[in-house]
Amino acid sequence: MKIYNNFFSGFCFSNESELFEDYLEKGDFIVSGFSYGAIKAFLYVKNSEKRVDKLQLFSPAFFQNKDDKFKRMQLMYFKKDEEPYIKTFLGNINSSFDKDVSKYYKKGTQEELDELINFVWNKEDLKSLVKKGIKIEVFLGGKDKIIDSLEAKEFFKEFATVYYFKEKGHLL
After folding, report:
1. What is the C-alpha separation between 68 and 55, in angstroms, rounded?
2. How far is the C-alpha of 154 from the C-alpha of 5, rounded, in Å?
3. pLDDT digit string (tens) for 61-112?
4. Four-way CATH pick for 3-165: 3.40.605.10, 2.60.120.470, 3.40.50.970, 3.40.50.1820
5. Nearest to 58 by CA among 90, 102, 26, 24
6. Is the pLDDT confidence value at 1 over 80?
7. What is the pLDDT of residue 99?
8. HSE value, Cβ hemisphere, 13 Å, CA-based, for 148
9. Are 139 and 59 in contact (CB under 8 A)?
10. What does the alpha-carbon distance between residue 163 and residue 140 come to, in Å, rounded to a whole number?
11. What is the three-class DSSP state of 49?
């Protein structure tokens, strides 16, 4: 996965950080990520010895509230026919967003989908980052068709400043 200015891209996306320019802070000690990229940003910060002051998570991929059947079905549909799966996925991401995002498209892999859908956010790891003095910000949209943003909000509010935009979707 390529990182741009300490920004990690989402599943099926590349170099889309400008989509979040209203919220995105840039700096040498700020790490950010969108959706699947939020997982990658979190893991990068968790495993890095480098100084990080702030971690920004935009619509973090949050599926730990979904059962195994849901996860298996997502992977099965992707494996069966990637193109329609990705088209539906991108349509759901873009549902309440009025900009063309096709220039950011990068074909995702089954391995990436598997990782993002089965990733479990660990409370102890998040607490550890906060103890290190890292400020965590989470940005969520109330009309998100990819994740359950209310569940994510409840989970992250213990560790982060959570910004919840009722009228926004996955792309905020």
Report:
1. 29
2. 29
3. 999 999 999 999 999 999 999 999 999 999 999 877 888 899 999 999 999 9
4. 3.40.50.1820
5. 24
6. no
7. 81
8. 9
9. yes
10. 6
11. coil
